[in-house]
Automatic annotation (TrEMBL):
<dbReference type="InterPro" id="IPR011033">
    <property type="entry name" value="PRC_barrel-like_sf"/>
</dbReference>
<protein>
    <submittedName>
        <fullName>PRC-barrel domain-containing protein</fullName>
    </submittedName>
</protein>
<dbReference type="Pfam" id="PF05239">
    <property type="entry name" value="PRC"/>
</dbReference>
<feature type="domain" description="PRC-barrel">
    <location>
        <begin position="8"/>
        <end position="81"/>
    </location>
</feature>
<dbReference type="InterPro" id="IPR027275">
    <property type="entry name" value="PRC-brl_dom"/>
</dbReference>
Length: 96
């Protein structure tokens, strides 16, 4: 990732995609740890309904841990953990 400092507000409104190119959601807010002075999460809204149809998100969104972030540019790329959760659930259902 680029180490050039950016204002956090520049992240709000950016689209988030998995590293496989699947749209996850849009950044609505940033979760901060003020004591450590680090970003520790991204609050996403406008979620991809195909990824989150089976999860109760309270219709508000989800918080993605910042450690999942792989790259920040015009869009934000995260690890494909969310896609794997969906795949694991489908695999578990097939085994039951």
């Amino acid at each position: 990732m680029d180490d050039t400092p950016q204002e956090l507000t520049t992240l709000v409104g950016r689209e988030v995609y998995s590293n496989n190119g699947v749209f996850v959601g849009e950044i609505e807010d940033i979760r901060l740890d003020l004591d450590a002075e680090v970003v520790n999460g991204l609050a996403l809204g406008e979620l991809n309904p195909d990824l989150f149809a089976d999860y109760d998100t309270g219709r508000r969104g989800v918080i993605v841990p910042y450690r999942w972030v792989r790259a920040v540019g015009d869009v934000v790329l995260i690890n494909d953990v969310i896609e794997r959760l969906k795949t694991d659930d489908e695999t578990d259902a097939a085994l039951a």
